[in-house]
Write a structure and sequence with these properties.
Order of helices and strands of chain B: HHHHHH
Largest sheet of chain A: 7 strands, mixed
Oligomer: heterodimer
Number of strands of chain B: 0
Low-confidence stretches of chain A: 18-55
Radius of gyration of chain A: 45 Å
Shape of chain B: rod-shaped
Strand content of chain A: 15-25%
Radius of gyration of chain B: 51 Å
Helix content of chain A: 25-40%
Structural class of chain A: alpha+beta
Chain lengths: 641, 191
């Protein structure tokens, strides 16, 4: 073993250096690296073999040292150059192009969206869902991405979709026609329910999924009961804004507020929220509860539709109110519409005419007038007035509707006047009090104002101005039998509610408030304190008078055996657009209050322009069937044998 | 690491210590010195035969191994600091990796669970909508007289008057639970 300085290590004594092998190794290295040009004479290179050098081979390590030093420098230079290059590039990317790149990255990796937050559902008083959001899909086709023939796709797609057909085409040919319309972005179907969308998404031809079909998800308001409560609910348009009914008036209660969240893409490609806002995951489970009873609503709509068809009426409305607190159990207006397909209906149907239109109430208002007169102390229930059947006033003829049949009734008590709905009698009753006091009382009842409901677009009732009313005796006379002024059906219910609840003017409303899953009230609509407009004695007397109307007067059709029902019919001439009254067009109505011993429910039916009939024959039967439904639903026990 | 393998008689460390005995007198020579001697300038008359002979003689040289005890304080403290910092670095690295792993896992879990939540919400909506549609269908069908269903009529309804509440002594044994219930608010039993 000896020390070899060239290798800086010990080697065994029998080691023999073989030049040949070492050189070939070097040559191969040189060839590999290309550092040594083969054309150059070998002697000039560091590996050269001059004859002297072969003789004194121990001079080579010096050259080798130089050579390795050069190599070291070369490697250093390469590394440094590389490092410098990297540094320059780093500077270029991190400083020069940084803002642009950062922006690009943000665009690609973040997604700022407002999450899809469903509108709060609307439920009825029993918890049945009246309006709810659901996911629907729009199907788009991009034929340029199709991986199957158009015919194949159309054949598969056709049975899944309900496509409107023009005559002479099948849904398949119709689909192919649409596929040929453009290269991409063809709308094939809208509002596809989840089930259909799932089937379309998993559609396969020869065990390969179909490309080129796109399903876009969106939220749509869905009304499972269709037109049942359309007049109250309204509808939500394509921009998710309520456009009528409660959807419009309670927009702020129905919309869940949600800040937009920023998502960023995580390493595995999922979207993760960047900054979580409180309440993002926990959607509240609040529902907007209405006071409406779906069963009663259904019964009312059925009864109204039937009568309207029978009498070929233009329109009609039924309102049921709980007079104790003003809760509306049912509001029906016909003709109505299906809010799921609101776009297929005429614009005029969107309004609920029970609050948006006024009409001259006619005789249904007589009960209110009697209450005013009783309250003012001008008359007593048994005060007697002479009913001539027909009187003349300021050049106007005022006569009873049954004048041709009954003629002059002669002396009648206030009760009898109401029972037979005598116009002349009412004129005498109301003229027994001062016109200014009468006007004051009407104003106190809220005439000239709205009923204050939570349904939108309510209009104010119309009353003549004070001077005109006081100075013209005919104004008082016409107002006495419910003409010459106009109110909304809703306000008439409100006024009759005051007769039912002992004289308090409650606010009719449909919204109960926001309730959570357990039925706990989260928020309730504030209600004004009811105003006392009649004394309980007055209302009791008027109700008893109204009971005679149903028992033996004009409202016999509203009788229900076993129950005490108060009511008042109304048949009013309709005012013509150009002034004066129409000869044929009438508006019939009936207002019923039940049960008389403990008055609670007010039911009003108004039928506009029936071809024949009167309040007693058209409207009273509707009220009767609604009350029957009400008795079953509210479990009201009979009080009469 | 280089400090640990450097021989203690390197020029710097040797200066502070007693000079070693000359190579002529003693056979004890450090490896470094031997190495220096051999890698010194190559003489022109240097021959492999000479070198072999010299190498053979130097094979018997006793080499001094570095003495741990004689490491200076500053070196030892540096070594300790290095060891401590290595441990800290490894721990930090492990912590960082696990934290990163947890974050990624958390994100993944979050998006999975969120998707689950979305699906459940969707199902809830679908279910309540379908049940309402069903109700509506039933109500519509019920209006058809062929189904034999009729709206409830007060004339067909039997109203039962609730029996007036009577307190008979016979009912006393049955009213035990009621007594227990009321015991909390009423006067104690036995009085």
């Amino acid at each position: 073993m000896s020390y070899d300085p060239r290798f800086d290590r010990y080697r065994s004594p029998n080691f023999k250096r073989t030049k040949q092998a070492g050189d070939s190794l070097r040559d191969s290295f040189a060839a590999r690296t290309g550092w040594e040009k083969p054309a150059k004479p070998r002697s000039s290179g560091s590996f050269g073999r001059s004859p002297q050098q072969t003789a004194t081979s121990w001079g080579r390590p010096v050259e080798r040292l130089k050579r390795s030093k050069f190599r070291l420098w070369a490697v250093w230079a390469v590394l440094m150059l590389g490092g410098l290059g990297l540094a320059v590039n780093l500077f270029y990317l991190q400083v020069t192009r940084a803002p642009a790149l950062r922006k690009q990255a943000e665009q690609q990796q973040t997604l700022k969206t407002k999450p899809f937050v469903p509108r709060r559902p609307i439920i009825d008083r029993a918890g049945n869902v009246l309006a709810i959001d659901r996911q629907v899909y729009t199907l788009y086709a991009h034929p340029k991405l199709f991986n199957h023939s158009k015919a194949e796709i159309a054949a598969l797609l056709a049975p899944m979709l309900a496509i409107e057909l023009s005559p002479g085409t099948t849904s398949e040919t119709e689909l192919i026609r649409r596929f040929n319309l453009a290269q991409s972005g063809i709308t094939i179907a809208e509002s596809l329910p989840q089930e259909v969308a799932d089937r379309v998404a998993q559609m396969q031809i020869k065990e390969s999924l179909v490309d080129g079909l796109e399903l876009l998800r969106q939220q749509q308001r869905f009304y499972p009961q269709q037109e049942l409560a359309a007049d109250i609910l309204g509808y939500v348009d394509g921009e998710r804004k309520g456009q009528a009914g409660v959807e419009y008036s309670q927009q702020n209660l129905l919309e869940r507020s949600m800040p937009s969240i920023q998502f960023s893409r995580s390493s595995n490609g999922n979207w993760v929220p960047d900054r979580l806002t409180a309440g993002f995951v926990q959607l509240d489970d609040l529902k907007l509860q209405l006071t409406i009873d779906s069963r009663l609503q259904r019964a009312a709509r059925t009864a109204l539709k039937e009568k309207m068809k029978q009498h070929d009426a233009k329109r009609g409305t039924v309102i049921v109110m709980d007079a104790r607190n003003g809760e509306l159990l049912s509001v029906v207006a016909e003709p109505s519409y299906d809010p799921n397909q609101y776009f297929n209906f005429d614009l005029s149907r969107y309004k609920n005419w029970a609050v948006t239109d006024v009409y001259e109430p006619g005789s249904t208002f007589k009960a209110i007038n009697v209450a005013i007169a009783l309250e003012a102390g001008a008359v007593k229930p048994n005060s007697v007035f002479k009913d001539e059947g027909r009187i003349y006033m300021d050049g106007w003829t005022i006569q009873n509707s049954d004048y041709k049949v009954a003629g002059a009734r002669g002396p009648s008590t206030v009760t009898e006047i109401l029972k037979h709905s005598s116009n002349v009698g009412m004129v005498h009753v109301m003229r027994s009090m001062k016109a200014s006091l009468y006007y004051q009382a009407l104003e106190k009842l809220g005439l000239g104002q709205t009923a204050g409901t939570d349904l939108p677009f309510e209009v104010t009732s119309q009353l003549k101005n004070r001077e005109q009313f006081i100075n013209s005796p005919v104004e008082v006379a016409t107002t006495a039998f419910g003409q010459g002024f106009s109110i909304t059906p809703m306000q008439l219910v409100q006024l009759n509610g005051a007769l039912a609840n002992g004289g308090k003017l409650v606010t009719p409303h449909v919204v109960r408030g926001l309730f959570d899953r357990d039925g706990e009230a989260y928020w309730k609509l504030p209600r004004p304190v009811p105003k006392q407009v009649f004394s309980p004695e007055t209302t009791k007397q008027v109700l008893e008078m109204m009971e005679t109307v149903v028992d033996g007067g004009t409202g016999k059709a509203a009788q229900i055996p076993g129950y005490r029902i108060a009511g008042k019919t109304g048949t009013a001439q309709k005012a013509k657009a150009g002034g004066g009254y129409s000869d044929k067009a009438i508006i019939t109505s009936f207002v019923g209050i039940m049960p008389v011993e403990a008055p609670r429910y007010v039911v009003l039916a108004v039928i506009d322009e029936p071809k024949d009939g009167s309040g007693g024959t058209v409207a009273a039967p509707i009220v009767e069937s609604v009350m029957e439904a009400l008795i079953s639903i509210e479990k009201i026990a009979p009080s009469k044998k | 690491m280089t400090a640990a393998i450097r021989s203690p008689d390197s020029p710097r460390s040797r200066s502070g210590r007693k000079p070693a005995a000359g190579p002529a007198k003693s056979k004890v020579t450090s490896i470094a010195r031997a190495r220096r001697a051999k890698t010194g300038p190559v003489l022109p008359n240097y021959s492999p035969a000479d070198e072999q002979a010299q190498a053979r003689s130097s094979a018997s040289v006793l080499k001094v191994l570095p003495d741990r005890q004689q490491q200076p304080v500053w070196l030892r403290s540096l070594l300790q600091a290095q060891r401590a910092s290595s441990v800290a670095a490894v721990m930090l690295l492990a912590g960082a990796l696990s934290l990163y792993g947890l974050t990624v896992y958390g994100e993944q879990r979050w998006s999975q669970e969120y998707q689950k939540l979305e699906t459940l919400r969707l199902r809830e909506q679908q279910l309540s909508a379908s049940s309402e549609v069903l109700k509506h269908q039933l109500a519509k069908e019920a209006q058809n007289p062929e189904t034999g269903l009729a709206p409830q009529n007060p004339g067909d309804t039997i109203f039962l008057q609730p029996a007036p509440e009577t307190r008979s002594p016979v009912a006393a044994p049955n009213s035990e639970p009621a007594l227990k219930k009321g015991a909390g608010v009423e006067t104690p039993l036995g009085y």
